[in-house]
Request: fold
Amino acid sequence: MRYFVTGEQQRKALLNALVLMFLGYIVLLWVSNGLMYFHRMSLTPESVIVYYLGSEEQFTQPRSYEGMLEVSHFHLFSMGMLAVTLTHLMLMTDFSVRLKIWLSGLVYASAIADEAGGWLVRFGHPLFAYFKIGAFVLLECSLAALLFVVITAMIRARARIKQSGSEQAG
Reply:
C-alpha cells in the first residue's frame, strides 16, 4: 500500500496491472453474487419469503438457524475483507473525500443490511422481504460504483504511466 500513499503507483506499471487484474477478479465475484441471488430468488417479496420461510406448495423447508449462521459466518468475514480492500484502494484515488466517505459508508451499511435481511425475513416478519430486496440492490449498486471508481483511477494511472514512459523515452 505504500505505493499508493507515496504516489509511486503512477510509475509502477506492474503494480497497476496487478491491481487491475485483482479488480477484474472482483468484477467476476460481483457478477457471481448477483447470479447466486437470482438463482435462489427474484426481486419479488414472494420469492424472498418462499426462500427463507419455505413453501408447502413447492415442498421446500424454511432456512434453518444453523444453516443461516454458517452462511452469515462466512459472509461477514468475506464481505468485510472485500469492503476493506476495495475502500482502502479507493482511499488512495484522487476522487473527492466526500465521495470516498459516502461510498465507503454505503458499501459497509448495505453489506450488513443484506446479511441482516435474510435473518429478519426468517425470524422477524415476512414483510422484511422488501428490506432484503432493497439491501441486495443497494449492495450490488454500491459495489459496482466502488469498482467503477477504483478501476477508473487505475486506468487513469496507467495512462499517466504510459505518458511518462513515452516522455522519458523521447
The longest helix spans residues 129-169. Helices lie at 2-6, 13-40, 45-53, 65-91, 97-123, 129-169.
